[in-house]
Design goal:
Layout: H1 3-6, E1 13-16, E2 28-29, E3 35-36, H2 41-52, E4 57-61, H3 66-74, E5 79-82, H4 87-98, E6 105-109, H5 115-118, E7 123-126, H6 132-137, E8 140-141, H7 150-168
Parallel strand pairs: 1-4, 1-6, 4-5, 6-7, 7-8
Antiparallel strand pairs: 2-3
Helix pairs in contact: 2-7
C-alpha cells in the first residue's frame, strides 16, 4: 500500500513529533554536557518546500530544547508546540486554533507518547524504526527511519497531491 492511497484528500496540515521523527532519536553530548541532535537535510528540504507553498506544518513534542526550537525556525514550521507530553490534547488544541479538521490532518510519530495524537487525526504515520506498538497501530509506516528521510516521504506525497490539485484546477504547480 502506498501513502497516496491512504493520504487524506485534501490534506490540511502535517504534524510531527521531533525526536525520533525529525531526528534519528540519538542524543550527542560534548564533554561539557551540551546536547546535540542530528537532523536529516532531505527531511528539512521537504518541510521547507511545503512552507514555500503555504502549506501548514507543525511540531508537537515533549522536548522543549533550544535545539528543537531552532531547527523548527530554520524549517519555517508554522506551529511549534514544545514541552507537551499530552500530545492528544496539544494536537486537538492546535487543530481547533487553526480551524483545520482532524480528518484532514497527518501526524508522524515514533513512540508510545505519540499514539494518542495519531488516533485523533485522519492519518497516523509511524516511521520505519518506530516502536512495534506504534507501527501496529499506525495507518501507514514509512520505508525510512526517523531522521533518515521518513518525513521527506510524507512531504513528497503531500506535494504531489497539491500539484495534482493545482493541475486539476488549471493552476501552475507551486514549489
Amino acid at each position: 500500500m502506498s501513502i497516496e492511497t491512504v493520504l487524506p484528500d485534501p490534506v490540511g496540515i502535517l504534524i510531527l513529533d521531533c525526536d525520533g521523527v525529525l531526528t534519528d532519536g540519538g542524543m550527542y553530548f560534548d564533554a561539557g554536557g551540551q546536547a546535540m541532535k542530528r537532523f536529516d537535510v532531505k527531511d528539512g528540504f521537504g518541510l521547507v518546500r511545503l512552507a514555500a507553498m503555504g502549506f501548514p506544518t507543525a511540531v508537537v513534542s515533549g522536548d522543549d530544547s533550544p535545539i528543537s526550537a531552532a531547527r523548527c525556525r530554520i524549517l519555517r514550521i508554522a506551529h511549534v508546540v514544545l514541552g507537551r507530553m499530552d500530545k492528544e490534547q496539544a494536537v486537538t488544541e492546535l487543530l481547533e486554533s487553526t480551524g483545520i479538521a482532524a480528518e484532514s490532518a497527518v501526524y508522524i510519530g515514533d513512540d508510545l507518547s505519540d499514539l494518542p495524537a495519531m488516533h485523533v487525526v485522519g492519518l497516523g504515520v509511524a516511521v520505519a524504526d518506530a516502536t512495534d506498538a506504534v507501527k501496529a497501530q499506525a495507518d501507514w509506516v514509512t520505508e525510512r527511519g526517523g531522521g533518515q528521510g521518513a518525513v521527506r516521504e510524507v512531504c513528497d506525497a503531500i506535494i504531489e497531491q497539491l500539484a495534482r490539485r493545482d493541475e486539476a484546477a488549471g493552476e501552475a504547480p507551486q514549489g
